[in-house]
Model the fold of this input.
Amino acid sequence: MQTLGERLQEARQRLGVTLREAAEFTKIRTDYLQAMEAGQFESIPLADVYKRGFVKLYAKYLRLDEEKAAADFNAHHSLKASRRPLDAGVEEPEGDGFSLPVGPSVLDRDKLVYVILVVGLVALLFWAVFG
Done:
């Protein structure tokens, strides 16, 4: 069974189109097209949404089923992602254990509303007692 990259390359060659011609028409960089045909999507330094869009655009240009190409990209990418540990590149913070955690805050809208109400209530009580 052919890989997505092999199918892209074969379709381009079947149409008699050079990589440079394909790049000029699709406005996708030649090195990105080469990486796609080689199946080296991870070497393209863009977010997956852009890579998927490029795959669909290139497949459409090559008269291939763009939805199948996108699905194949998704399968390829999810296979690569499943091999990576979830915490790859994340280091444990060093220190005395009393520092605040690093990373996105987990404070949803409802909790934020409650915090604001409590602070307002405390301020109102403080003003009523000492004001």
Summary: The chain has a mean pLDDT of 83.
